[in-house]
Structure formats: C-alpha cells, structure tokens
Inverse folding.
C-alpha cells in the first residue's frame, strides 16, 4: 500500500435553494466551485487529474442515474479519464473518498479528484417513492408513518432513559455547534443561538427540536488526493491519510430501521458507524486517545453525545458532562465538530463525507481561524447513510 | 350504519383469535421476521427453511418518538393532523416491532407494558383503513 496525501480541498458554501448563497445553482455549478477551489489549493491543473470518484446523488443532477461524476467531468472538460460514481446514501461522500484513497494506495492512479455535491428537495427526505407492498420502506411509511427525525428521536428518548439526559443537555450541543460555526465562511448558519432559543424552537419529533436537527442544504465539496511520490512535486507539507474505511451494519444491529427485527439481548447502537471507526483505529494503529478532534455525522445533536462513547473517545454516560464543561469545543479535551457540524451546515447529503475531509485538512494545516483546534495532529471523520452504510477516515500531519 | 374497514395493506396482520402480525421464523435458528422473509438473514445460520409465525400479545416499550409533523407520502392520515407517538416494542415472543401508539404522546413512557391492537390509520371514500398499533396496558 502506498501512502496517500490530501493535496488540496474546496467547498462551495452551503445554503438553501433560492437564498443569497446558492440561489438556483445546479449541482454541477456547486461542484465546479468546490473543484476549482480544490485544484487551486492543490496547485494541480485539471489535466493532471487521472480519475474521479464522485458521490452519487438520487436527488438531482447525475442525469437521473446518479452519474454526478460524469456531470462534473463534462462541465470542467472531458479528458477521457475514468469516473466512479458511488452510491451509499448519506455516506456516499465518505465512500467516494474511500474508493479514491484505495485506488491511489493500491497504485492504480497518482492524482484523483474526490467530489460530492447536492441540491436537496425541500422538507423531510422521502426514502422511497415506490408504492410496492414488497418494499419494506413503503410499508413502514404507509402502515406506521415513521419519518427520519423520528428514528433519531427514538434513539434520543432511549438515551434519556439510560443516562437521564435532559432536553437542556441536547440543546447545549446545538449551542456549542452554532458557536463553532461563527466565522466559518462555508457554514450555512454562522450565528450563535442561545439555549433559550433552541428550547423555544418547535419539536420536529419529540424530544428533538428544529434547532437540534440538521436541515437539508445545497452545497459541494472536493478533495484532490495523491500518492506520496507525486505529492512531493506539489507541496512540502501535505496532510496524510492515515486510513480510510467502510463498513455496513451487522445482523446483530437492532435499531428500528425497518418494521421489525429480532429483539436484542444487549445494547442497541449503530453497528456500521462503530464498525467503520474501530476498523480505522485498528488499521492506522491510531488509538482514540491520539485523536485531536473529530468530525462526526450530527444529523441530530444526539449523535454528538452517543458516538464518542460508542467509539471509546470517552466513557459511556460521560458525554453530557464533557459538553457542559466545554470539553467538546475546539479548545477542549475532546473537540467534536469544530466546523459547526451538520447542525450548522445543513446536510447536502452526498457532499458530507468530502466536506469532512476539507475541514480535517484545514484543521491539520492550522488554517481554521477562530474554530482552530490548537496543535491539531490527528483528525477523525465519520459518515453514516441509509442502508446501513458508514465510513471513517483518519487524517494526520 | 357501521362504517366498513379494511387493512391499509392486506395480509400483514389479523385479529382472528387475538391480534397478531403475520411473519415468519427460521426453522433452524429461530430468528423472527416481519414481514415474512423468504430466507434467513442470520450470517451465523446455514438454514434456509422458514415457517409462518404469528407475533402478538404483550411487550415492553424499548423507546418511542413523536411525529410532531405529518410524514410525507406514502403515509396517509386524517386531517387535521394530530401528533402521534411511535413505539419500538420488544414483544414477549422475541420480535422488536415498530408501530403507532393509540395513546396520547404525553402518556407514553420507556419501559411501559403495551399490547398489540388493530386501529384506524386514516379514512378514504367513507372507509376506515386499519393498521397494527400498540396500546398501554
């Protein structure tokens, strides 16, 4: 396996259709912004890109077939390079990064573009449009009516039962996240919110409120990755990919993802996320205590409490206390989502895994301004997507 | 005049001799499935023979949430929308089943004992369409 470097990264600021940030830009236009920025950042020209791995969207662009990478290549200039379109729900950006990384590490290509962009439909995401009685997702929505936020609310409610977590403690996570977003030029929301404002926002799915759940956003992210030998031509101080992993959920996973499953004898948690992160620790030889900061998928503030515990970054039941003590802020002992996270960016689903690589890279270079984690050496990123998909990546300097 | 009712999706549940959902179970490892599975999904099990199995009776709420806003289609509901609780229930016979709660969200608690019932989900063309739900015992 070859060592792999991140040479350059770029983002298009996240926004909402029709606003002053993204207006009515297409996925391809958003991606162009991110790719241009990443190419400049890397000092790489378009003609030097040898392959593209792209997160595949089902919402827009991609010719209706998730061919988002082909759209990007046609737009910037068809050079005949191979394009890999990766589909993994909200984990697609992480998957695209993993496939790009694997091919550079395996010696197939030296310089690869990883890209993800999204223009999201308004409102709650519909998981399935099919009215097929053989489709479990149709049955779940027709017979029960179990929207995405209610899945998260079920986990949050269970945590309240297990650890006595209060609604104020969930709200504190959002207050911290939005504080981080101030001065992040790429975040959709860049203003602080108070505990009172969070607690005054309406329930989307009790116990979770509007400000505690990420909205859908439009945005794009890009990264140029490169083999070690070739990287020396472009920069003297690249950021290194310690590892990149993918996992799917296991049979023992007993979260309510469908209509029913076997009742478990033990705890219920995201087996795909834990699988990807633990595999990343194992493969890189990096342990939780070596992690300077983490960018995790906070579709809801619940995950910012549960995931660090499930992965061994802190003890079970300890997260609320760490948040209250400021330990999850960029200057704390266990910084989580210094970017502001999904709660501040909104979720441009397939862009998110690449967005995290951009934030990790800036943090490790010391370019993150007010949200900088002092002396950051190792960053952990994690995504999670429909179908039981998850990815993790560890970057280091 | 009694209003006619029918299941929102046929073949998933029954109230003959007690309310139950109609699933299956692996003959070899005993893993329960709802809806019916055609083969066992347990990677530790080499068996593939399934038998029909009914799941009903009582259970315990593992957790719950509230739909405070109406879910998008294909969900259907009577207007005006009334927020409802959704229970995730560990039934006594080994199945973890998701379903709406009949009871108002304020009354629901993690760990509560519940039973499976059939109840109306929505009305269309003067007909009541039913589904399985849970009720606090």
């Amino acid at each position: 396996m070859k060592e792999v470097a991140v040479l350059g990264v770029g983002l298009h600021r996240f926004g909402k259709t029709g606003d002053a940030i993204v207006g009515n830009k297409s996925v391809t236009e958003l991606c162009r912004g991110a790719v241009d920025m990443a190419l400049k950042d890397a000092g790489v020209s378009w003609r030097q890109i040898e392959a593209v791995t792209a997160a595949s969207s089902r919402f827009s662009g991609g010719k209706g077939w998730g061919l988002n990478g082909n759209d990007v290549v046609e737009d910037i200039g068809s050079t005949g390079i191979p394009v890999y379109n990766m589909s993994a729900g909200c984990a697609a950006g992480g998957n695209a990064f993993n496939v790009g990384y694997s091919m550079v590490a395996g010696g197939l290509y030296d310089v690869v573009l990883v890209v993800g962009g999204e223009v999201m439909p308004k409102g709650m995401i519909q998981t399935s449009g099919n009215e097929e009685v053989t489709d479990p997702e149709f049955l779940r929505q027709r017979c029960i009516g179990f929207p995405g936020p209610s899945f998260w609310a079920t986990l949050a409610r269970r945590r309240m039962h297990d650890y006595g977590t209060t609604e104020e403690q969930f709200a504190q996570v959002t207050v911290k996240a939005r504080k981080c977003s101030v001065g992040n030029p790429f975040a959709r929301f860049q203003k602080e919110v108070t505990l009172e404002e969070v607690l005054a926002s309406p329930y989307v799915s009790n116990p979770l409120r509007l400000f505690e759940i990420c909205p859908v956003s439009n945005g794009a992210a890009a990264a140029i990755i490169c083999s070690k030998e070739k990287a020396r031509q472009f920069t003297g101080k690249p950021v290194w990919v310690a590892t990149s992993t993918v996992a799917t959920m296991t049979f023992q996973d007993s979260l309510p993802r469908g209509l029913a499953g076997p009742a478990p004898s033990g705890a219920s948690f995201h087996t795909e996320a834990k699988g990807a992160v633990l595999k990343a620790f194992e493969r890189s030889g990096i342990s939780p205590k070596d992690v300077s900061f983490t960018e995790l998928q906070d579709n809801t503030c619940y995950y910012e409490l549960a995931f660090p515990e499930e992965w061994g970054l802190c003890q079970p039941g300890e997260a609320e206390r760490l948040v209250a003590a400021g330990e999850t802020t960029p200057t704390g002992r266990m910084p989580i989502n210094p970017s502001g996270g999904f709660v501040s960016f909104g979720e441009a689903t397939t862009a998110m895994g690449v967005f995290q690589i951009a934030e990790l890279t800036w943090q490790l270079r010391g370019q993150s301004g007010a949200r900088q984690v002092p002396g950051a050496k190792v960053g952990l990123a994690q995504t999670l997507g429909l179908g039981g998909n998850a990815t993790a990546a560890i970057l280091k300097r | 005049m009694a209003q006619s009712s029918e299941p929102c999706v046929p073949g998933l549940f029954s109230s003959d001799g007690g309310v139950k959902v109609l699933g299956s179970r692996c003959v070899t490892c005993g893993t329960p499935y709802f809806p019916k599975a055609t083969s066992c999904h347990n990677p530790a099990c080499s068996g593939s023979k399934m038998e029909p199995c009914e799941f009903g009776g009582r259970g315990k709420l593992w957790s719950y949430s509230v739909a405070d806003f109406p879910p998008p289609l294909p969900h259907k509901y009577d207007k005006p929308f009334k927020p409802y609780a959704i229970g995730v229930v560990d039934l006594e016979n080994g199945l973890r089943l998701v379903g709406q709660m009949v009871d108002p969200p304020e009354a629901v608690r993690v760990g509560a004992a519940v039973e499976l019932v059939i109840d109306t989900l929505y009305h269309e063309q003067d007909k009541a369409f039913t589904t399985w739900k849970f009720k606090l015992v």
In short: The beta strands of chain B are 5-7, 13-14, 20-26, 32-33, 50-56, 58-67, 84-91, 95-101, 113-124, 127-136.
